[in-house]
Design brief:
Helix content: 40-55%
CATH class: Mainly Alpha
Order of helices and strands: HHHHHH
CATH architecture: Orthogonal Bundle
Structural class: mainly alpha
Number of strands: 0
Number of helices: 6
Distance between the termini: 27 Å
Number of domains: 1
Strand content: under 5%
Length: about 160
């Protein structure tokens, strides 16, 4: 039994997703700047990038974007967004620092909890996290007016990788 458990731990550790590490000087692309930058990475116009983004699910119907929507550019953007915006409350590795006095403790994304939720909840779980990032919840502000749908889906993937 111990051999089985040890082998399972090694397999699970090997399956852990590797997140890109952004430069400490990198800045996220916010608002319209995202569409201009994203268009340049895809070789399309900014208007085409906006239309492409608008076609992505918004989390309301429990679906996630099709496989292949997110690429290494969106993964890096999510890593930058996490590092510059999310980590101050949720921690660089998904483990929040102690909260300031009088502030609530943000949710920890370490361990098997989210992974198990994604495994069993699938796209509905992803859509729920998308809505929380977009609309906010409790003391967490909503980012839907600042980030594109693609950026928010990339952050969902970032959370899933913890």
């Amino acid at each position: 039994m111990r051999i089985f458990v040890g082998a399972l731990v090694l397999v699970l550790a090997g399956c852990a997703a590797t997140r890109p590490q952004p430069s400490p000087h990198a800045k996220p692309h916010l608002g319209d700047e995202w569409f201009v930058w994203r268009a340049s990475t895809l070789g399309i116009s900014a208007d085409q990038a906006r239309a492409r983004d608008a076609a992505l699910p918004d989390g309301t119907d429990g679906t996630a974007p099709p496989a292949g929507t997110l690429d290494e550019n969106t993964e890096l953007e999510a890593a930058i967004l996490w590092s510059k915006q999310c980590a101050r409350c949720h921690g660089e590795d998904g483990i929040p620092p102690p909260p300031e006095e009088g502030r609530p403790q943000p949710r920890a994304w370490d361990g098997m909890g989210p992974t198990m939720g994604f495994a069993f909840g699938g796209d509905k779980m992803r859509a729920g996290i998308y809505k929380t990032i977009s609309r906010g919840r409790g003391s967490m502000p909503g980012w839907g007016d600042t980030l594109s749908r693609e950026q928010i889906w990339a952050l969902v993937a970032q959370v899933e990788a913890f």
